[in-house]
Write a structure and sequence with these properties.
Layout: H1 2-5, H2 10-22, E1 30-32, E2 37-39, H3 42-56, E3 58-64, E4 68-75, E5 78-88, H4 99-118, H5 142-154, H6 159-166, H7 176-203
Length: 204
């Protein structure tokens, strides 16, 4: 009975992984030569994340459709319990790449972003040049608009307040360069709600 009471839920286990990861010195090996900044590649943190997930009993599972990418963090002791992180997917047509390479690029970016969000792997606080890249100031796609609006509903966020925070009049006016930060804010709020729900269930 005491053992069951002290058993950690998936939220607590994920938090332990995050805390331990803060003590790991991660190096950015990715380099954007166009905009001249360094970034984390998957290989820079996946091995350490995998070790810590194994240590604390959680299992991340990534999946991507043509519209949305999802990272589910499962509790290895109770696979019906999990935390979900998601983001919209936009498959860009890159010069010199075929369709499969374009999909691969989108998949890699989505997986990288979701892992960094779920495990709180911090980049610089300021935008790392996405504002310099082609199309960065273009409005987000209709798919992105729909996913953000769904997250706003899921988190009971006031739409007008969110638009004011994002410095736009409507969701569709959000620029590509600001998409990651808007998604991060909403996903963090969603994560907090999941934590509160999990904590409430534990106390029942």
């Amino acid at each position: 009975m005491a053992e069951e009471k002290n058993k950690l839920n998936v939220v607590a286990k994920l938090q332990k992984v995050r805390a331990d990861l803060q003590g790991v010195e991660l190096r950015k090996t990715g380099r954007n030569t166009y905009s001249k900044y360094d970034y984390f590649e998957l290989k820079d943190f996946l091995p350490d994340v995998a070790k810590l997930c194994n240590k604390h009993g959680v299992n991340p599972v990534f999946n991507m459709t043509k519209d949305v990418a999802t990272l589910l963090i499962y509790d290895c002791e109770d696979i019906e319990k999990f935390i979900s992180f998601d983001m919209p997917v936009a498959i860009s047509e890159l010069k010199g790449c075929n369709a499969i390479q374009n999909i691969g690029g989108a998949l890699t970016y989505a997986k990288r972003y979701l892992y960094m969000n779920a495990f709180e792997i911090a980049e610089n606080d300021t935008t790392e040049t996405e504002g310099e890249e082609e199309g960065a100031r273009d409005p987000i796609s209709n798919v992105h608009v729909k996913v953000i609006e769904n997250l706003i509903k899921e988190t009971n966020t006031d739409k007008m307040n969110f638009c004011a925070w994002a410095k736009v009049k409507e969701i569709k006016e959000i620029e590509n360069r600001d998409l990651a930060y808007c998604m991060k804010m909403l996903n963090e709020k969603k994560d907090k709600i999941q934590q509160e729900k999990s904590g409430g269930k534990k106390g029942e």
